[in-house]
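Support request, priority: normal
Reporter: lab tech (M.K.)
Component: structure prediction queue

Hi team, I submitted a job for non-specific serine/threonine protein kinase from Aegilops tauschii subsp. strangulata yesterday, and the status page still shows it as pending. I've pasted the exact input below so you can check whether something in the sequence is tripping the parser. The sequence length should be 438 residues. Please let me know if I need to resubmit or if it's stuck on your end.
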Amino acid sequence: MNDCTCKGFQYQEDTSSCYPKASLFSGRTYPTNDARTIYLKLPDRVNVSNTAFPRSDVFDPAPPHLDCNQMSIPPILEAHNTDVEEPKWLYFYGFIAAFFVVEVSFIAFTWFFVLRREVRPSEVWATEEGYKVMTSHFRRYSYRELVKATMNFKVELGRGSSGVVYKGVLEDERPVALKKLKHISRGKEEFQAELSVIARIYHMNLVRIWGFCSEGSHRLLVCEYVENGSLASILFGDKSIILLDWKQRFNIALGVAKGLAYLHHECLEWVIHCDVKPENILLDQNFEPKITDFGLAKLLNRGGSNQNTSHVRGTTGYIAPEWISGRPITSKVDVYSYGVVLLELLSGSRVSELTVGSDAEVDMVIRKLVTMLADKLEGNDESWIEEFVDCKLGGQFSYVQARTLIKLVVSCLEEDTRKRSTMESVVQTLLSSDEADK
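Reply from support: The job had stalled in the queue. We restarted it manually and it finished. Here are the results:
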């Protein structure tokens, strides 16, 4: 009676056994040869005196040999309690939650697997002594590899203010040019500047960089090998056996303009070369120009400040007046340097050889020359053009294209940067002149 889970018990007369009942279902009876009696536990307040039951022996007196020892056994609860209705929405939300967990796990696993596959030691940010360069565009070479590739830096291709260039051959038999930076204190800044620029740009008129070395005190750039060397060595070299004809010179002027226009107008950031000169213009086997040496490159965010240049950069004879006067530095400094290169392509001689002195004196000579050319262009006589163009061409050139180049020289060398051309407009002018001459 004290067991709340017991709803009643069944007494089996032939064995005098009791079976406690924890749950009552339909109340249906089943045919059996055994004499069985069911006793129900009811509340005291229930009056059953006038209640009729299908079987009259339900309330018969207990048999004389009633044995209810088994009543002490705790009744076994039914696993499914029909009195409590389980909420079905729990199954629905449980399924949704399980599906979500599986989906998140799959995404996390995929992301982790792809990340580990793509970001390897040779393809992560190379961090050494302050260097953080995304190497997905480069391969990092060991110093030992480059010593072997250059046969211990045997063949020298050229020298510059920031380093020496050597010829090498990689293990895949690809010829390369290795720029070995000198002056470590300066080399670090130049090295970082070159890599930060190279990681963002690619153009057919720019030298491609294949990799780098940053090991100990060694800082090297691994560049594509350009067969015919620099424009300076061909145009001004005493031992040069190559004479650039007019078509080649015009194509060089156009290719360099395209490369600079890409740097100034098509990159995600403004890129100022700051040292445009014939030594930094290389010619491939087809005499297509490729601009090299971004060690002095100046990066400016579009719309940002452009007055944070620390010191004058460039080479005497190619430096724009604003470098000296301390005016804001923009991409127009490259336009000025390009104008000097055009002048040298036309005349076949260095402008810097016109005088030996400071940048101010060279600039003064250039100013007088530009003024003279501007006056000549105003007249109708064009006989002076042949006298101005490189005599080594023997008069074999296009007067239309020569006049166009001279006009561009005057425009690019304007002292007022607002009147100076942009490289985009230079490219359009050259393309129009090329079409008109055909």
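Residues 138-225 form a domain with the Phosphorylase Kinase; domain 1 fold (CATH 3.30.200.20). Confidence is low (pLDDT under 50) at residues 56-68, 70-84, 117-136, 298-305. Let us know if anything else looks off. Ticket resolved.
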